[in-house]
Specification:
Layout (H helix, E strand, L loop, with lengths): L6 E7 L6 E7 L2 E5 L1 E3 L12 H6 L5 E3 L1 H6 L3 H6 L3 H5 L5 E3 L3 H5 L5 E3 L4 E4 L7 E4 L1 H11 L3 E3 L11 H21 L6 E6 L5 H14 L5 E3 L8 H15 L6 E3 L5 H10 L3 E3 L2 H7 L2 E2 L6 E2 L27 H9 L3 H28 L2 H9 L8
Parallel strand pairs: 4-14, 5-6, 6-10, 10-11, 11-12, 12-13, 13-14
Antiparallel strand pairs: 1-2, 2-3, 7-8, 8-9, 15-16
Helix pairs in contact: 6-7, 7-8, 10-13, 10-14, 11-13, 12-13
């Protein structure tokens, strides 16, 4: 990796919290943090054109290595000029390792020091074996700006011995990924695992720091079944007290607004989650009133926008709550699309406002105001 292509500048730190505002430089553009990354799992944010995603303010998007490796295949994407060209998104892209999706196959997975063998039950039922080297070869063919090491993500609850083995495997695989990754215009992030056990988290982080100069760190193994307070018991001290200060910190797979607000306060820089689009397709929206379910009959004659405080193109474009509810209850696809657009904008705008508060030195007040508002009732 060419270190000069991937640098992280901290431009402001809040005096009363651990929040910081920064700029992550990549070959396809700068990313102002804190930032939420919309998820385009299969090289598309479901139902939302890329020009819309861009106009909503997205600076970086995420795609999934497992799904792209299965269909259409990394070789085809490389032949088409790489992921940026293939999916027609020319800003920064992060691809995850696909490990979370692989391990979701549960009984169809066999682990060893060498790698992971699984059955692609959600595709053609083929038997697939991935080594860390295979995983890096796929990532480099995809050509994202940032890729993630292959790791094992244990669910919750799990025996500590099982989580410890996952940390051991993830650390071993991180070393092999680090050695196998050679693409100069792509950054490889290490991933801190360890479940809800602080000693295992610190063991994982220590190994990554000793291994090499990763340009950033993912934090995996959260939002896997535990409640949010349990998550923050270890996440808060891990990030605010132990993670390297001058490297971006990426909390993987977490996306409800209140967790983003609290996470930024502990020093997290990057987030991703399918939540805004998945819940949008299910008929729900984030709002200043908290989570709204548009299957609820109370919206049937409501002429107001989804959220009167929101400036997204849906809320300012004349779509009423009554119309949104009609589309949701009659399964008109536009309803889910409009809610997805609103939800993506909501999280992007929330991070813009958070960044402004950090720069002003008022993020502590920002958190207090958020937690006292109905908007915090989002899950």
């Amino acid at each position: 990796m060419d270190q000069s292509l991937f640098t992280y500048d901290i431009v402001a730190e809040d005096p009363k919290t651990h929040a910081r505002a920064g700029i992550l430089h990549t070959p396809h553009g700068d990313i102002e943090t804190p930032i939420f990354m919309p998820v385009g799992t299969r090289a598309t944010v479901k139902g939302v054109p890329w020009e819309t995603v861009r106009d909503l303010g997205a600076q970086i998007v995420l795609s999934n290595t497992y799904h792209l490796a299965m269909r259409p295949g990394a070789d085809l994407i490389e032949e088409m000029g790489g992921l940026h060209s293939f999916m027609n998104w020319h800003g920064p892209i992060l691809t995850d390792s696909g490990g979370f999706q692989v391990f979701s196959h549960n009984d169809a997975v066999k682990l060893s020091n060498e790698g992971v063998r699984f059955i692609a039950t959600d595709y053609d039922g083929s038997h697939v074996f991935w080594t860390p080297e295979d995983n890096m070869a796929i990532a480099q063919k995809l050509g994202s700006d940032i890729c993630m090491q292959l790791d094992q993500c244990p669910g919750y609850p799990a025996e500590k011995s099982y989580v410890a083995r996952a940390v051991e495997l993830s650390s071993m695989w991180a070393e092999r990924c680090y050695k196998a990754h050679t693409r100069p215009d792509q950054a490889l992030f290490g991933i801190v695992q360890g479940g809800m056990h602080m000693d295992l988290r610190l063991r994982s982080l220590k190994h990554l720091e000793e291994l090499g100069d990763f340009p950033g760190y993912g934090i995996g193994g959260y939002s896997v079944g535990e409640d949010h307070e349990t998550m923050f018991e270890t996440l808060a001290p891990l990030v605010s007290e132990h993670m390297p200060r001058h490297k971006p910190r990426y909390l993987m797979g977490v996306g409800n607004p209140t967790t983003l607000v609290r996470g930024v306060g502990y020093g997290i820089d990057m987030f991703d989650c399918v939540l805004p689009t998945r819940t949008g397709r299910m008929g729900t929206a984030f709002s200043s009133e908290g989570r709204l379910n548009f299957r609820n009959a109370r919206f049937a004659r409501d002429a107001g926008p989804i959220d009167p405080t929101c400036t997204c193109p849906v809320c300012t474009g004349g779509y009423s709550r009554a119309h949104i509810r009609h589309m949701v209850t009659t399964k008109e696809m536009l309803g889910g699309i409009l809610l997805s657009i609103h939800n993506i904008y909501y999280l992007l705008d929330l991070m813009r406002r958070a960044r402004a508060a950090i720069i002003e030195g008022t993020y502590g007040d920002f958190i207090s105001s958020w937690m006292a508002s109905p908007a915090s009732q989002d899950y």
